[in-house]
């Protein structure tokens, strides 16, 4: 079952934490998260899942940043989120998808117990300008049934952009 926007607001600061929280970002069944002013790109043109791949972090000026096709950009959310009670899910916004911007297409499934800022995988189909503070994606919450362990692993409690840590699995 997916929580309604009103239920997300009701559980805010209790079983769901979204900081900062703004009522204007509530949707019928989700909450919009905003783009921070940091964006990262990998420094190597060929990435390797068995090693740490470094990223270079840029500040997005208020005048905007042009995303080019055929590049992977890592963004992050302004909002910090946490919950030990629901499964957080992240999706791009349809308004941006209709402009050819894919947000978090392959990794939108969160884990119960995740807490931190969301690192966003962004890919532009065509050149597109983005700006800090725009509503970039939406978070929604599923209930869960059965026994579960809280997620407290490699990406939890992050403080900024997180490059892939898949190399830690080898």
UniProtKB/TrEMBL annotation:
Any one Gene Ontology MF annotation carried by this entry is: dCTP deaminase activity
CDD domains recorded: trimeric_dUTPase (cd07557)
So which residues are the signal peptide here?
none
Keywords, alphabetical:
Hydrolase, Nucleotide metabolism
* InterPro entries from the UniProt entry: dCTP_deaminase, dUTPase-like_sf, dUTPase_trimeric
Q: Does the keyword Calcium apply?
A: no
A biological process (GO) annotation for this entry?
nucleobase-containing small molecule interconversion
Q: Show the Pfam families listed in the entry.
A: DCD
Among PANTHER family, the record links this protein to: DCTP DEAMINASE
Can you say what this protein is called?
Deoxycytidine triphosphate deaminase
Which organism encodes this protein? Enterococcus avium ATCC 14025
